[in-house]
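SEQUENCE-TO-STRUCTURE ENTRY
===========================
What this section holds: a protein sequence and its matching fold, both as plain text.
Question of interest: how does this chain fold, as expressed in backbone structure tokens?
***
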Amino acid sequence: MSLAPISPSPPILISPSLLPTEETAFFADSSFFKHHSLSDLPSPAKIAAAALPGFSRHISLFPDLSLAVKRVKMTTRHRASAAEGQVLWALRRLLPDSEVPVPEVYGWRRDGDMLFVFMELIEGETLHKRWEELEEHEKAQLCAELRAMAFYEFFMQMPSSERDTAHSLGLPHLPYDSPIVFTHGDLSFSNIMITPRSAPGPARVLAVIDWEQSGWMPDFWEYCKPRIWMMSLPEEETGDMIKKLPEIMGEVPEDVFMAYATYVQAYGGF
């Protein structure tokens, strides 16, 4: 497969053989192991005890170690989630420095039916949390930063292929000629970390987190999914988020979005 940046740099060829595939793998060259050893990593019991509440209960934070741990239960349904560590590893090593900021992955460990992914703790706040308090020029700058990362253009493009024509069901049609690209898969504003309120200067992007749903998708996916998510939230919570999406991901025709929304609703949402 080929990763084709927008810049004139030559494509980066990626082979599965380049990726670490062990059920337990740690990276001695990562920043964590410059100051710590394997024995400093928290045990499964400590990880469970430090779990965040609510929807983030699969995440545990250890600020004294600058460490975040993600727990993945290795069921058939969530088997693909184990690849998140590989995605972080590949993005940090194969993309030019800081093109797409992601947490540094230190390694992962399989323990029974659980996988623990050990990664850098990003000391910031989510864009979703801070959005309404940001000045208009800060919003514009953050959108420009995210657009420069070009999620659905910059990463990896698969060779185009012939696609079968779907039977007409009288429903809105999704385009069948859209490029298939590597996407984050869930680029909501809650997965974009920016500098905290206490940081000097204007807000800036620190990292894009939660790559659990990343994969090969049509290029309209990265716009449509967060818009669906935003539409499910109270208007006072989202403000002008939806209007800003094209500044980050480019325009997607409204009929394409409506077709996407139709199929999402038909299958009961995400």
Observations:
- The chain has two domains: 6-120, 125-264.
- The chain has nine helices and 13 strands.
